[in-house]
Amino acid sequence: MAQFTIDKLEDILARGAFDELRGEYENQWFDAKKQPYQIEFERQKAEMARDVASLANLDGGYILIGVRTESESVPHAGDIIKEIHPFEPALVDTDQLEKILRSSIIPVPDGIEIRWNPTSDELDKGVVSIRVPPQPDTSKPFLHYYVNDKDKRDGVYVGYAMRIGSTTQSQAIQDVQRWLRAGLNYEREIVSRLEAMEARLQSMSEPRTGESFDDLEQKNDKKKVEHLVKFGLSEERLLIISAFLANPKAQISFHDRPAIVASLNQLTEGLRNGGWKALYSVEIADDSPAIVRTARKDLKAIELFPDGSAVYECNLNVLCFTSGELLGTPPRIVPVALVEVVYQYLSYYFDFLRTLEVDDQKCFVKIDLLNMHKDGVKTTLPSYTAAPMTFYDVVEAPENDFSKIIEVDTSSANRATFLLLSEIYRWFGFSDTQIPYKTEDGSAEYQTDISTFIS
User: Fold this and answer.
1) For residue range 109-140, what is the model confidence (pLDDT) as tens digits?
2) Cross-strand partners of 244
3) Residue 29 is part of which domain span?
4) What's the rounded Cα separation, in Å, for the pair 169 and 159?
5) How deeply is 246 buried, as exposed, middle or buried, from its count of CB atoms within 10 A (0-12, 13-18, 19+)?
6) 278 and 385 part of one domain
7) What is the per-residue pLDDT across 18-67, written as a single tens digit (0 to 9) for each?
8) Pair (370, 309) in one structural domain
9) Does the pTM of the predicted model rise above 0.70?
10) Cα gap 31→63, rounded to integer Å
11) If I label 46, which of 78, 193, 207, 345 is the partner at 20 to 30 A Cα–Cα?
12) Is 443 exposed, middle or buried (0-12, 13-18, 19+ CB in 10 A)?
C-alpha cells in the first residue's frame, strides 16, 4: 500500500472513492469521525473547535466525517479505518460549521475549507471534510473556547490543544499558566538573552583556534564518521551524541591520559545499579590522541579529544529496545534508557571539560539518530509518565535519520539533557509535556529529574 499522504487523501476525496481509505491509519494530520458533530449541544461545538485548533497549532491537516475507525490489538500510532459511513448532505450544514469555528477559535485560522464530498456511486450520500491549511507561526497559538449562553453556570472554557501523534491533546492548565507567566516576563527575558548573545558573540570573535563554527562542525562530523568506521556500527540503529566547544583550546596531547580517566567517575553518581550504564572500561591507544571508553565495541563507546570535543555512540538495538522485533512488533525505545544514557553522556562530558579546566560555559551538542527504518521496520517511541508506567501514544520515527545541533550550558547536565530529549521527542511528534522524568525549575523551564530513576 502506498504511503498515506495529504495528496493521496485529496485525490480520494476528488474521486469519491472512499473505500480506498480502508486500512489507512489516523495520524498527526488526519482525524476521522464516524458521525457529524451534534452542534445543538455546546460541548460538541467545543469539541469541533478543539479538533480544528489542534491541527492549526501543528502543521494543518484534515478532519473527515463519516469514517469509522478501530484500535488494533497490535499497537500502532493511530486507529485503523474499518468502514465508511456516508450520509445525506442535509445532516450537515457546512456554512453553520464554519460560522461556529469562526466564533470559537482565536485567532481564526486562515483558509479553513468545509466541504461535502459525494461518493462516486451514490451522489446523494457522502462524507464531509474539514481542511486546515498550515498556519504561519506568527499566528500561533490558536485557542479554542466556548460560552454556554443557555446555562451561565456552565461558565466559560478556554483551552489550548495540539495534534500529538494520532490524538488531539489538550495542554494541562499548569502548562498554560507557565506560558502566560513566561509571556508576562517577555521583555526581561529578551533583554537577558540579548545580553547573553552579545557576550557570546564577543567571546566567539576571538577564537583560540581561529576556526569558524562551520569549520568546527565539519571537524566534529569527521570525527563522528571515523568513530563509526572504527567500531563498525554504521549499519545499526544508533544514537550518536557528539559535542564540541565554540571556542576550543588548541589541539594538544593529553599529558597524562590515565590520570584524566581516573579523575572521572565511571558511572554518574546516584544512578541506579542495573540501569542503562553508559560507560564501563578504558582503552588508551598509543596511535590516537583520544581517550576511548567502552564496554563492548559493538554496544557503546565514547572518545574524548584534547580539544574538548567528544563522540559517543550506542547501539539502540541492544541498549534502548525491548525485544519487539522478536515478538513481531516494531522495535521500541525504552524511555528511561534514553533519558539515562543522554544524562550520563552529558554529565561525563561536562566533568571532562572541567578536568581540562575549560572556562567556556557553553558548548554545542549534536544528536543523531541513524537507521531508524532499518530493514523496512520503523523504530517507535512511546510516551508515558514516570510513575505509574502508563503508556499513551506509540509513534513511529518519521524518517530514517535525524540530526540536530543545539547550544547548551555546561553548568547543568539536567537542563541540557532535557533540551536534547526535547529535540528527539518533538521529531517523533510529541510535545515537551509528554517527556518523562522531568521537573520544572524556578525559572519555569523544564529539566531532567534524575531523582525519579536513581538507586
Assistant:
1) 999 999 999 999 888 999 999 999 999 988 88
2) 364
3) 6-170
4) 10
5) middle
6) yes
7) 999 999 989 889 999 999 999 888 889 999 999 999 999 989 999 999 99
8) yes
9) no
10) 5
11) 78
12) exposed
